[in-house]
Please model this.
Amino acid sequence: MKLTDSERAMLDGHEGKAKRKAMELLVRYAQALGADRFVDTHNVAGVPGSYSPLLLNYYNATAENAYDVIYSRFDLDSDEVVEVPRVTVSSCHLQGGVDPENWQTLGAKPEALQMSQESEAAAASHGIRILKTCTPYLAGNVPVKGEHCAWMESSAVVYCNSVLGARTNTEGRESTSAAMLTGKIPDWGFHRDENRFASHHISVEVDVESVMDWGMLGYFVGATVQERIPVLTGRFNRPDLVRHKHFGAAAASSGGVEMYHLVGITPEAGTFEMAVGQGVSNRCQPQVITYGKPEQQRTYDELNSKASDRNVDYVMLGCPHAALEQIEKICRFLEGKRISTHCNLWIFTSRAVRTVADSKGYTRIIRDAGGALITDTCSAIGQAIPPGTRVATLDSAKQTHYLPAIMGIQAWFGSTRDCIDAALTGRWNGARP
Amino acid sequence: MSITVTLRGRTVVGGCTEGEALVTRDTISGWGGVNPMSGTIIETRHELRGRSFKDKVLVFPGAKGSSGWSAVFHMTRLTGTAPKAMLFNEMTTKIALGAVVMRVPSVTDFDRDPLTVIETGDWVKVDADRALVEVIKGRSRAGHGG
Model:
């Protein structure tokens, strides 16, 4: 690998043991990838030093040394525990732990809350911004076009590359924690111009309008192109932030999509030719794939193949974490009503968005209707569902992909409106498009 | 009678090991796709659903899904349920980082597709330092274990 003098100095231990361990891990990682240099990053999003009972027990950590022990042993994959300094570049903590206001609703034990709060306090004292969300771009971390980032969270990665035109690979816990200390990440994949062109052309031949439509399209695209880059043309209008969020999250979970282009809409797709890199050497014409009514219906059926019982006991919204406009919409459906006594309604969002929701009275509307607006986590990440849940309804293709597998429950997929109707009646009446 | 086939690739993580192959044509999700306590695939409709890769030579197209891939596979090392080696086709950041922190011999970029050459149950010798993989076909599990 070609290392700069400052990178060499960190690797040689001139900036302390922790940075040495971080550089050692980054070099192993870069070599595994086949990268020959690093790129500087000043924007890192991960889950540094997060505790879990299993990790604490495995490493025999105590409350006093847990951050250093877990950051060293797990995050930096070091065999020795080193003292972990403050982060050197702008770093934020994504989702995780339990909501300190709704921990009892989530069914968390007091010890879990305490562990979450200790972990958070340790990270904060090391200079990490505690955003506690999978949508950092809705909580103040909005990278600019061309900015090199090192982000975890596949739904945030695809948003960062595709919608913002910033540059990140799907990093993991260990690489982001190492990047927070060093400001370095392998120069590979999406950091490089030549890897940002589309290889697959999705021709959309059915109207794609609603958030649900975009979620289904994303789920189809991910399953079809896997980890390749699609460019989409056809029967859709300019999607808003929420539609991008649901499309990208779905494509990143059914496949591994980290970037997509919408011609005339996303920043690196001014034209179709730009999106596919026409004129750039070694580019071949992308393969064309049709998404029409049959593909849309098949996607819907696939998403709904994990449910059969129409009596619903749990409605979960906010995957990825809800934007304020989604909470406003939910409140319009809910205001003045009560959800079914047989059903729970949990809506997940970031702390930043909930603060605004609190001040606008939305949190109260949801509570008065019998629901809860919860931060920091979600049912899949926190493995938290209301006791006795058998059948859930979801408006997120991503959550529908994960939740039944993780929690062993049935799940229906539909529109936000379908989900709220299910919460009010306790019955699923979603319709196939 | 056994036939030996040799594959050459590129080293991802060095080291030597051998074991029985577990082969899938489906990509694997880490977080939400694998239970790290048992090394079992849990993804709905995955062709290996319910199967564990513990102590196997895992042969698969590559990684997909959540960025928690490396952390989940890292956990399998801690719980003793990691595969013995990984042989795969598609390089991604998820799998590179996962292989590194799992510390298992791993090879990619083969001269022949391992998914067509290797079948579940084949005995596989992995020399990841030299990026060489020797596949012993038709050698039954019982024959070797005995």
